[in-house]
Amino acid sequence: MQGEGLDKGGREMLVEGEGGVFLVPSVTDKWREIQEFQARSDDILIATYPKSGTTWVIEMVDGIMKGGDTSLCLQKPSVARAPFLELNPPKPFPSGLEMLQSLPSPRLVKTHLPFHLLPPSFLEQNCKMVYVARNAKDTMVSYYHFHRMNKRLPEPGQWEQFFENFLTGKVAWGSWFDHVTGWWKEKENCRMLYLFYEDMKENPAREISKLAKFLGKEIDQAGIDRLVDHTSFQNMQHNPMANHSTLPANIFDQAVSPFMRKGEVGDWKNIFTVAQNERFEEEYNQWMSRLSPRFRTEL
Ligand code: A3P
After folding, report:
1. Can you give the residue range of the structural domain that contains 81?
2. Is any atom of ligand 1 closer than 6 Å to the C-beta of 145?
3. How far is the CA of 268 from the centre of ligand 1 (A)?
4. Are the CB atoms for 167 and 283 separated by under 8 Å?
5. Hey, which bits of 38-175 come out as E strands?
6. I want to staple 259 with a disulfide (CB 3.0 to 4.6 A). Which of 113, 147, 168, 244 is the partner?
7. Residue 204 lies in a domain
8. Per-residue DSSP letters for 44-66?
9. What is the pLDDT at residue 55?
10. Which residues contact 134 (CB under 8 A, 6 or more apart)?
11. Other C-beta atoms lying within 10 Å of the C-beta of residue 138
């Protein structure tokens, strides 16, 4: 995809993809190949709604798979250690599918797809899946700033506009509500560990231990301590293999907003108006039920 579906500024425009989920044309153009992706039984799928702590949990999972030897995590950028399945950037950048093809097993595979749009081979191969969910308010704020700096995503407009688009699912990868509840409903039906960003903030050592157990890896206390340190916001912020600074400014313009922006729970309070909070709660209560996952918007 080199020119079609782009606005005047070279940003992608939203398109309605499979099942009415909004995506970007670079992804829908590759839809058949994405769906035909051949997962291997030892692939580890890392799935999130955008801005929910994907890069963070990748760093944790990669460190665990490397036995707690964090020096090995510094050899390649995050995107090469856990390729993004549906990513299809303009040339010369390789697509996620191309990167995954040449990656030795066991592979880490990143995706933002809703559960029902996953390539079927992940379920056929009974792959382990790690899902991270983050409360909608902080996710929305983070996604807004990410749209400002990611020059390929659709123009976000003013915050008020983005707020409405997010609530109504008119953003890339669709509705946050459908995403977090869609994955939640399936968690007993496959090998899935469902984590929360807020829990990772509250007690990263506990969540890393949970991950290690799920992945079948024994990491001693020194290894856990090393991983907590390696995956702290401060360290990841300055780690070029984690902070996406290897990407050029015409893709990620970190002068507009850094990828590692704040890494906090409750940042929404700095931007939501009282009226927006009321509107949010109204929408939230319509979508979420007693059976939905429970989120914390402050710690
Ligand atoms: P903010 O924009 O709120 O700062 P993703 O990797 O899914 O795109 O998510 C990015 C969000 O996760 C950003 O949120 C980023 O700062 C935050 N993040 C990344 N690494 C983190 C870490 N080690 N600790 C806490 N938050 C982290």
Report:
1. 15-287
2. yes
3. 14
4. yes
5. 44-48, 108-111, 128-133
6. 244
7. yes
8. EEEEESTTSSHHHHHHHHHHHHT
9. 98
10. 48, 49, 51, 52, 53, 142, 196, 197, 198, 295
11. 25
Q: Is the CB of 48 under 6 A from ligand 1?
A: yes
What's the rounded mean pLDDT across residues 266-275? 98
| End-to-end Cα, the chain, rounded Å | 42
Q: What are residue 110's DSSP bridge partners?
A: 46, 84
pTM across the whole model: 0.97
Query: What token pair was written down for 243?
Result: 């902070």
Query: Does residue 274 form part of some domain?
Result: yes
> In this structure, what are the phi and psi dihedrals at residue 9, rounded to the nearest 5 degrees?
-85, 5
Residue 20 burial (C-beta neighbours within 10 Å; 0-12, 13-18, 19+): exposed
Residue 3: pLDDT band by 50, 70, 90 thresholds?
low
- Which atom number of ligand 1 is nearest to the Cα of residue 242? 20
Do 176 and 166 meet the contact criterion of CB atoms below 8 Å apart? Answer: yes
Query: Quick check: 197 pLDDT over 80?
Result: yes
Question: Rg for the chain (alpha carbons), in Å?
Answer: 18
The tokens for 150 are 């990611």
CATH assignment at residue 38? 3.40.50.300
pLDDT in tens, 93-145: 999 999 999 999 999 999 999 999 999 999 999 999 999 999 999 999 999 99
3 in any annotated domain? no
**What's the structural domain count of the chain?**
1
Ligand 1 in contact with 261 (CB < 6 A)?
A: yes
Q: Are 227 and 208 contacting, i.e. CB atoms less than 8 angstroms apart? A: yes
Residue 176's alpha-carbon distances to 114, 127, 186, 245, 247, in angstroms, are 9, 24, 16, 27, 26
Q: How far is the CA of 52 from the centre of ligand 1 (A)?
A: 7
Q: Is 295 part of any domain?
A: no
